[in-house]
Amino acid sequence: NVKVQEAFKGLGHDTLDKLDTYIRHSDVVVHLIGEMTGNTPGDAEQTALLRAYPDLPAKLPPVAEALRAGADISYTQWEAWLALYHGKRLLMAKAEPAAPRDPNFAPTDQSRAAQTAHLGRLEMVRRYPDCVFENAADLARHIAYTAILDLLVADYAKEAAAARDIAEGFIREMAG
């Protein structure tokens, strides 16, 4: 199942908490990086998240540094950090400058600087964009041939091992 932030179901929680809930139950997080940051959670949301995960700043020092410096961390940027915190596979995809954009696309010098700082923080934990995409089809192809294919192979291996265990148990039972 693919979930996008804009379509999260109402869970009776704030947006950052919903984002955390979805990521905790995900196999892969696809983190799209462009020139705009998106909305940022309020102080109360971030405080609640850090109260729930008091070890997060120690596990992710660039986040701690950004928060101490008063930097805004957008919901979309929190996606990446929560994926890393929860040990989820993080696929980072960066849009080419000429990639098609939403009609509301209106980056500012401030949003570009925030994204550059975000990428710099991710580089501090040795995370870099996995691909640079030109359009939606290019992005879908990259996701399909990396993250999705890896998940399908792992699932197939798990199913094959379970079937083998059942067959071997049956053979032992019949031989006994």
Summarize the entry for a quick read:
This protein is mainly alpha-helical and about 180 residues long.
Describe the structure.
The chain has 176 residues and is mainly α. The protein is built from 7 helices and 3 strands. The protein has a 3-stranded parallel β-sheet, sandwiched between helices. Strand 2, helix 6 and strand 3 form a beta-alpha-beta unit. The radius of gyration is 20 Å and the shape is globular. The model has no long low-confidence stretch (mean pLDDT 85).
Task: Looking at this protein, list some descriptive labels.
176 residues; mainly alpha; three-stranded parallel sheet; 7 helices; 3 strands; globular
Write the layout of secondary structure elements.
Blueprint: H1 15-24, E1 28-33, H2 43-52, H3 56-59, H4 61-68, H5 75-85, E2 89-95, H6 109-124, E3 131-133, H7 136-175
Parallel strand pairs: 1-2, 2-3
Helix pairs in contact: 1-5
Helix content percent band: 55-70%
Structural class: mainly alpha
| Largest β sheet strand count, sense and barrel closure | 3 strands, parallel
Nearest-integer average pLDDT: 85
Order of helices and strands: HEHHHHEHEH
